[in-house]
Specification:
Keywords: NADP, Oxidoreductase. The chain is an alpha/beta fold. It is built from ten helices and ten strands. The protein has helices at 26-39, 53-63, 84-95, 115-126, 140-150, 168-176, 195-204, 208-219, 230-237, 246-253; strands spanning 6-7, 14-15, 19-20, 43-45, 71-76, 100-105, 130-136, 156-160, 180-184, 222-223. Strands 3-4-5-6-7-8-9-10 form an eight-stranded parallel sheet. α1 (26-39) packs parallel to α2 (53-63) and α2 (53-63) runs parallel beside α3. The longest helix is centred in the N-terminal third of the chain and has 14 residues, at 26-39. 43% of the residues are buried.
Length: 256
């Protein structure tokens, strides 16, 4: 099976490449996740808000891939603050599993860091329902509030990210706190027609979208491109046959 690099989290390694499922619905979601698992993906990202946890769970069960071989993420929407335990129980039931590899606060409730909500995720981790916990759409200052108030820093911060968003200060600030940077919407946020990406794509005989995925992996960022199209799911995963040179990375970084 194709080898995808990983990053270390407290509860186990996270593959740097996963399948995103935002806006994947019904049978489209089921087929996309099932195909991704058949192709070799071992990281699936969903969320309570997406309304597709049941389809993800069905695909995982039908795939025949052992549960322990798949890194599974879902997210707590702020609308469910105050009923974290019930929400997690429902997510586990829909996903057909007795634990999550990663549970995230989907975005800061009412725009606040909300350490009391973070404490509920830590409690779920402490009783074994979740292996690692983190956040999404948090600023670095909000990460620090959680750390200062609870003594524990999120393992992951999932944020909108791609070459056009690249900021070395953001990268450094996450790294020095030990927070893994996970990017979403990599293609939506990137000009795939940029000359820099096209030049690198020609050099490796790949698509510019594949260059974007490889850019994440070579930097050590997690990336979760979403697709329900089998050919695109396959192409997004077919990025281990090449890597970017330091000069190529620098040319793409300069897009930020």
């Amino acid at each position: 099976m194709t080898s995808i690099p990983t990053a270390a989290l407290p509860g186990g390694d996270i593959p740097l490449l996963g399948l995103g499922t935002w806006q994947s619905e019904g049978d489209d979601c089921y087929r996309a996740v099932r195909h991704a698992l058949d192709v070799g993906y071992r990281h699936i990202d969903t969320a309570t808000m997406y309304g597709n946890e049941e389809q993800v769970g069905r695909a995982l069960a039908a795939s025949g891939v052992p549960r322990e071989d798949v890194f599974l993420t879902t997210k707590l929407r702020p609308a469910d603050v105050g009923r974290e335990h019930e929400t997690l129980a429902q997510s586990l039931r829909l996903l057909g599993t007795d634990y999550l590899d990663l549970w995230l606060i989907h975005w800061p409730p009412s725009g606040d860091a909300s350490p009391w909500v973070w404490a509920e995720l830590l409690a779920a981790r402490n009783v074994g329902l979740v292996r690692s916990v983190g956040v999404s759409n948090y600023s670095v200052d909000q990460l620090d509030i959680l750390s200062e108030q609870t003594g524990e820093t999120p393992a992951v911060n999932q944020i909108p990210w791609g070459p056009d968003d690249y900021d070395p200060q953001v990268v450094e600030q996450h790294a020095k706190r030990g927070v893994v940077l996970e990017g979403y919407s990599p293609f939506k946020r990137t000009n795939l027609d940029s000359p820099a990406l096209q030049a690198v794509a020609r050099a490796h005989d790949v698509s510019t979208a594949q260059v974007v995925v490889r850019w994440h992996l070579d930097h050590g960022f997690v990336v979760i491109p979403k697709s329900v199209t089998p050919a695109r799911i396959e192409a997004n995963f077919d990025v281990t046959g090449f890597s970017l040179t330091p000069d190529e990375l620098a040319s793409i970084d300069a897009l930020g």
